[in-house]
Structure formats: C-alpha cells, structure tokens
C-alpha cells in the first residue's frame, strides 16, 4: 500500500486524542505527525475526529439535579459499608476455620498421644501370656499340686531320690 493511502494503526488511533491534546511523549507524537504529513487518508481521520469534537462541544451539557451529589455519596457510603461487612464476614469465617482446624489438630494429637501411651506404657496381657507360655501350658498340673509342701514330699520320696543318684 502506498504511503499516501496508509491509515492509522489501532495503537495510533487510540493515541490520537492524546496527540491532539499534546499529551504524548515526543517519540510517539513525532511518529503520528510524520504519518499525518505523508498520508491524506490519515489526515482525513484526524479531521473527522476534530469535527466530531467540535460538534460535541456545541451540544448542550446536561445539568445534574441538586440532590445528585447527595444521592451519589449516599450510595457510595452504602457500598462502602456493605464492602466492610463482606470483608468482615470473610475474616470472621477465616478465623473460625482456623480455630476449627486447630481444635481438630489438637484432638488428633491427643488421640495419637493416648494411643502411644497405651501401647508403650500400659501392660499388654497378650505379651505376658506369650512370655509365660510354658507356665500357661502346665497351669492345670500346677493347680493340682496345690502348694510347696507336696513338692517337698515328692523331693524326699524314694522314687525321685533314685533318679537323683543316677
């Protein structure tokens, strides 16, 4: 496309109002000025924009009602108060969730500690039976003996004395 028919790019078109108000930096302003000086199509776009602004300036400006400011400020205050309540609700909910998590963690720790104490400190009757298995296997015979007096009589009896001599 010839330079004379080149249109403004979307970025340049977005900066066009700032160019007309002399709010662009020097490099951007120079780029748009160069394109405007070389391209009649671009100049027509700028002229159309300038005419639009001139027509807008001729339109009557609406006047806000007297209570407009008061209503606007009232709505802003209400939104601010509602925003504070919502934020407060989030903070309160967060604190409650944290406390609940803390209680659950403390309960789990107490349960774990109780389990460990029960396993290591409390005597296990099954372990005792396994340790004294030979006594448990002959428990009926030991009950028949009754007391040590019977065992002393056996020890002094001639049947057991013969075996000791051998």
Outline of the structure:
This protein is an all-alpha fold.
Structure description:
The chain is mainly α. It has 3 domains: 3-58, no CATH class; 82-122; 125-165, no CATH class. It is 79% helix and 0% strand. It contains 10 helices and no strands. It has helices at 10-14, 16-20, 26-38, 40-58, 68-120, 125-131, 133-137, 139-145, 148-156, 158-165. It is rod-shaped, with a radius of gyration of 51 Å. The model has no long low-confidence stretch (mean pLDDT 82).
Chart the SSEs and their pairings.
Blueprint: H1 10-14, H2 16-20, H3 26-38, H4 40-58, H5 68-120, H6 125-131, H7 133-137, H8 139-145, H9 148-156, H10 158-165
Radius of gyration: 51 Å
Residue share in helices? over 70%
Strand percentage, roughly?
under 5%
**Structural class by SSE content:** mainly alpha
Give the integer mean of the pLDDT values. Answer: 82
How many runs of DSSP E, i.e. beta strands? Answer: 0
Described by strand count, sense and barrel closure, the largest sheet is: none
Q: Uncertain regions: pLDDT < 50 for 5+ in a row?
A: none
Tally of alpha and pi helices: 10
Distance between the termini: 130 Å
SSE run:
HHHHHHHHHH
Query: What is the total domain count?
Result: 3
* Broad shape: rod-shaped
Pick out its properties:
166 residues; mainly alpha; 0% strand; single chain; 10 helices
């Amino acid at each position: 496309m010839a330079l004379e028919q080149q249109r403004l790019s979307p970025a340049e078109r977005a900066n066009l109002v700032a160019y007309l108000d002399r709010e662009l930096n020097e490099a951007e302003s120079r780029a748009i000025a160069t394109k405007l000086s070389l391209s009649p199509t671009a100049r027509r776009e700028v002229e159309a924009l300038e005419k639009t602004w001139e027509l807008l300036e001729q339109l009557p400006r609406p006047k806000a009602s007297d209570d407009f400011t008061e209503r606007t400020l009232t709505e802003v205050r209400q939104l601010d108060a509602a925003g504070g309540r919502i934020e407060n609700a989030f903070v309160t909910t967060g604190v409650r969730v944290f406390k609940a998590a803390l209680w659950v963690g403390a309960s789990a720790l107490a349960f774990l500690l109780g389990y460990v104490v029960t396993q290591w400190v409390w005597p296990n009757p099954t372990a005792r039976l396994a340790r004294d298995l030979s006594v448990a296997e002959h428990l009926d015979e030991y009950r028949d003996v009754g007391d040590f007096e019977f065992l002393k009589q056996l020890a002094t009896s001639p049947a057991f004395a013969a075996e000791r001599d051998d």
